[in-house]
From TrEMBL:
<comment type="function">
    <text>Part of the RFC clamp loader complex which loads the PCNA sliding clamp onto DNA.</text>
</comment>
<feature type="region of interest" description="Disordered">
    <location>
        <begin position="477"/>
        <end position="509"/>
    </location>
</feature>
<dbReference type="Pfam" id="PF00004">
    <property type="entry name" value="AAA"/>
</dbReference>
<dbReference type="GO" id="GO:0006260">
    <property type="term" value="P:DNA replication"/>
</dbReference>
<protein>
    <recommendedName>
        <fullName>Replication factor C large subunit</fullName>
    </recommendedName>
</protein>
<keyword id="KW-0547">Nucleotide-binding</keyword>
<feature type="domain" description="AAA+ ATPase">
    <location>
        <begin position="38"/>
        <end position="158"/>
    </location>
</feature>
<dbReference type="GO" id="GO:0005524">
    <property type="term" value="F:ATP binding"/>
</dbReference>
<dbReference type="InterPro" id="IPR047854">
    <property type="entry name" value="RFC_lid"/>
</dbReference>
<keyword id="KW-0235">DNA replication</keyword>
<feature type="binding site">
    <location>
        <begin position="46"/>
        <end position="53"/>
    </location>
    <ligand>
        <name>ATP</name>
    </ligand>
</feature>
<dbReference type="Pfam" id="PF21960">
    <property type="entry name" value="RCF1-5-like_lid"/>
</dbReference>
<dbReference type="InterPro" id="IPR023935">
    <property type="entry name" value="Rep_factor-C_lsu"/>
</dbReference>
<feature type="region of interest" description="Disordered">
    <location>
        <begin position="419"/>
        <end position="439"/>
    </location>
</feature>
<feature type="compositionally biased region" description="Basic and acidic residues">
    <location>
        <begin position="423"/>
        <end position="439"/>
    </location>
</feature>
<dbReference type="InterPro" id="IPR003593">
    <property type="entry name" value="AAA+_ATPase"/>
</dbReference>
<dbReference type="InterPro" id="IPR027417">
    <property type="entry name" value="P-loop_NTPase"/>
</dbReference>
Length: 509
C-alpha cells in the first residue's frame, strides 16, 4: 500500500502547494530548453519535505519529459554516475522521448573521497544536452561548493502553515477522516514547513485511531527534530574530534534527550559490533556524568557528558561510512508514551537488568538496546543474557515481538535441555569418583602422618637449603618482573596504536 506521502504527491505543478515564483522560473527554464537554448542546470535548495523532488517530477510530467533519477542512497562513485548520467545526458532520444535528469540530494556526496563524484558531475553538466535538476538541503555544504559555479541556485522556502493546512484538509476529505480544522491546523503548525512530515503525522494519527486535539498537541516539534537529525549526521559520519564536539551547537535540546537520539541511531550507522560496543561504552560514561548533573545540580558535568557522547561516539568507528542512513526517532520515547501496562513491563525489565549490572535503569536502557542488536546478530549470546537477566517469556514478547522472542525462547529451551543432560551425566561420573575419593583420602591421611614424624625429626634444616629457597623465590620474582615489563610495553604499544581513543581518554583523566 502506498503511503499517503506518495499517494498524494502532486503530479502536476498546479497541484504543488506554494512556491509560486519557483514554478514560474522552472517553466521558463524548461521552455528555453525546448527552444533549443542551453541554460545552466538548476539546483533547488530547501529544507526537507518542502517539495524539491516533487517540483522536479511535476515539471517533467507537465512538459512530457521522462525522469532519470539518482539519489543519495545510490553509490555515487564516479563510474556509476558516468554510466547513468553520462549516457542519458548525451544520448539522443530514440523514440522521441525527452529526458530530464534529477540528481537528488547532491549535498549527500560526502567528504574528500567523493570529490571524484563531484568533479564527474561537473564534467557531465558541461557536456549535457538534457535538462538537469539537482536538489540539496544545504547549498553551502562543503562537499558541493565546487559545483556552485555551474548551476543556477533556486532557493525554496518552507511551505507556509496555511498551505500545509489546505493540503492536509484535502487528504482528510479524500480519506474520509473525522477530524476538525483546529487539529489539522495544529499538525500543520508542528511540521514547521515540512509537508512530508505533516502528511506522515496525519497518516500515523489516523492509523492509531486518535485524531484528538490533545494528542496532536503533544506531537514532537519537527523544527527541533530537523536540527537533531543534522547533528546526528555530523556525529555519526565524522571521525574528526573537533567537528564532532561542535555538532550540538545549534541543537535546542538538553543532553539527556540528545543522548537517546544518539543511542537509537548508532546501531543504524555503525556496522561493526566492536564499534557499536565502543560507542555505547562512551554513551554510558556520558550518562553517568549526566546523572551527576542531576544529583548535584552541577552543570559543569554537561560539558564532559556532551564531549563523550559526540567525540566519543564519533571516534568509536574505524572509518566513516559512505552510505545514506535513515535515522529515526528514539524508540524509547515512543515506549514511554505507550499504555501504562506496557510502560510497567518495560520498567520491570529495566529494573532487573539494572540489578544484575549494578546500574541505574537509565543505563540499563543501553544494555537493552545492545541486547536487541545481539538478538538479531547473535541470538545464542542474546539468549544467555535473557537467561541471566531473568527476563520472562511475556516480557520478552512485549520487548521484541513474537518472532524474535520465540527464536530466543527456542534457543533457551535447547540450551536448558543440553544442560540438564550434561548434569545427569556428571552425576553418574560423580558417584564413580566418590569411591575413588575415599581411597585417596586414606592415602592422604597416611602421608600426613608420615610427614608429622618427619617434621619432628627435621628441626635441623641445613643452611644451604634455606639459601636455596630464597634464591628460588628471587628468581621467581625476577621472572615475574620481566614479564610485567614486557606486558607493559606491549600494552603501551597497543595504546599508541589506538591513538584516537587515547586522546579522548586522556581528556578526561
Ligand atoms: N509543495 C508541496 N505541495 C504538495 N505536496 C507536497 C509539497 N511539498 C511536499 N509535498 C508532499 O511531501 C512529500 C515529500 O515531498 P518531496 O518533494 O519529496 O520533498 P523534498 O524533496 O523537498 O524533501 C511529497 O510526496 C508530497 O506528498
Ligand atoms: Mg527529495
Amino acid at each position: 500500500m502506498l503511503s499517503w506521502v506518495e499517494k498524494y504527491r502532486p503530479r502536476s505543478l498546479k497541484d504543488v502547494a506554494g512556491h509560486e515564483k519557483v514554478k514560474e522560473k522552472l517553466k521558463t527554464w524548461i521552455e528555453s530548453y525546448l527552444k533549443g537554448e542551453n541554460p545552466k542546470p538548476i539546483l533547488l535548495v530547501g529544507p526537507p519535505g518542502c517539495g524539491k523532488t516533487t517540483l522536479a517530477y511535476a515539471l517533467a510530467n507537465d512538459y512530457g519529459f521522462e525522469v532519470i533519477e539518482l539519489n543519495a542512497s545510490d553509490k555515487r562513485n564516479s563510474s556509476a554516475i558516468k554510466k547513468v548520467v553520462g549516457h542519458a545526458a548525451t544520448s539522443s532520444s530514440i523514440f522521441g522521448k525527452k529526458f530530464l535528469i534529477v540528481l537528488d540530494e547532491v549535498d549527500g556526496i560526502s567528504g574528500k573521497e567523493d570529490a571524484g563524484g563531484v568533479s564527474e558531475l561537473i564534467k557531465i553538466i558541461k557536456k549535457a544536452k538534457n535538462p538537469i535538476i539537482l536538489t540539496a538541503n544545504d547549498a553551502y555544504a562543503t562537499s558541493i561548493r565546487s559545483l556552485l559555479p555551474y548551476v543556477e541556485i533556486i532557493q525554496l522556502n518552507p511551505v507556509h502553515t496555511n498551505s500545509i493546512y489546505k493540503v492536509l484538509k484535502k487528504i482528510a476529505q479524500k480519506e474520509g477522516l473525522d477530524v476538525d480544522d483546529k487539529t489539522l491546523k495544529m499538525i500543520a503548525q508542528h511540521s514547521a514547513g515540512d509537508l512530508r512530515s505533516a502528511i506522515n503525522d496525519l497518516e500515523a494519527l489516523a492509523l492509531s485511531g486518535d485524531l484528538s486535539y490533545e494528542t496532536v498537541q503533544k506531537l514532537p516539534d519537527r523544527k527541533r527534530e530537523a536540527n537533531i537529525f543534522d547533528a546526528l549526521r555530523v556525529i555519526l559520519k565524522t571521525t574528526h574530534y573537533g567537528i564532532a564536539t561542535t555538532a550540538l551547537m545549534n541543537v535546542d535540546e538538553t543532553p539527556d534527550v540528545i543522548i537517546e537520539w544518539i543511542a537509537e541511531n548508532v546501531p543504524k550507522e555503525y556496522e561493526k559490533a566492536e564499534e557499536v560496543a565502543r560507542a555505547f561504552e562512551y554513551l554510558s560514561k556520558a550518562d553517568r556524568y549526566l546523572g551527576r548533573v542531576m544529583k548535584r545540580q552541577n552543570y559543569g558535568f554537561w560539558k564532559y557528558a556532551t564531549t563523550l557522547m559526540t567525540a566519543g561516539v564519533a571516534l568509536s568507528k574505524d572509518e566513516k561510512y559512505r552510505k545514506w542512513t535513515p535515522y529515526s526517532y528514539p524508540k524509547i520515547f515512543r515506549l514511554l508514551t505507550k499504555t501504562k501496562a506496557e510502560r510497567e513491563i518495560l520498567n520491570k525489565i529495566l529494573k532487573k537488568i539494572g540489578e544484575k549490572t549494578h546500574t541505574s535503569s537509565k543505563r540499563a536502557r543501553f544494555d537493552l538496546q545492545i541486547l536487541e542488536i545481539l538478538a538479531k546478530e547473535n541470538p545464542y549470546i542474546a539468549a544467555d543474557l535473557v537467561d541471566y537477566f531473568e527476563i520472562k517469556e511475556d516480557e520478552l514478547k512485549a520487548l521484541f515481538g513474537e518472532r524474535l522472542s520465540s527464536k530466543l525462547l527456542k534457543i533457551l529451551k535447547e540450551k536448558k535441555k543440553k544442560k540438564s543432560e550434561k548434569n545427569k551425566r556428571e552425576d553418574k561420573k560423580d558417584k564413580k569418583n566418590e569411591d575413588k575419593k575415599e581411597v585417596k583420602k586414606e592415602i592422604i591421611k597416611k602421608k600426613k602422618e608420615d610427614k608429622k614424624v618427619e617434621e619432628v625429626k627435621g628441626y635441623e634444616i641445613s643452611d644451604t637449603e634455606v639459601k636455596k629457597d630464597i634464591k628460588n623465590l628471587e628468581t621467581q620474582k625476577q621472572v615475574k618482573k620481566e614479564k610485567e615489563i614486557k606486558e607493559k610495553k606491549k600494552e603501551d604499544k597497543k595504546k599508541e596504536n589506538k591513538g584516537k581513543q587515547l586522546t579522548l581518554d586522556a581528556f578526561f583523566k
